[in-house]
Recover the amino acids of this structure.
């Protein structure tokens, strides 16, 4: 997975508590930025888009 273009949010904190995302062809990969050699989760583009939309409308906000 070293050839992938991993991206971290511009809102990431300096402490490193972040995830990184890569988007090769038809999947979206997510990994822990502190463990770049570790496992990555894979999602379909539609699933990832739905997740991001949910974040934007506050679906996952803690009450």
């Amino acid at each position: 997975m070293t050839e992938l273009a991993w991206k971290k949010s511009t809102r990431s904190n300096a402490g490193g508590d972040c995830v990184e995302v890569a988007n090769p062809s038809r999947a979206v990969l997510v990994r822990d930025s502190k463990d770049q050699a570790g496992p990555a989760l894979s999602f379909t583009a539609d699933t990832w888009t739905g997740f991001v939309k949910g974040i934007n409308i506050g679906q996952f906000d803690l009450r």
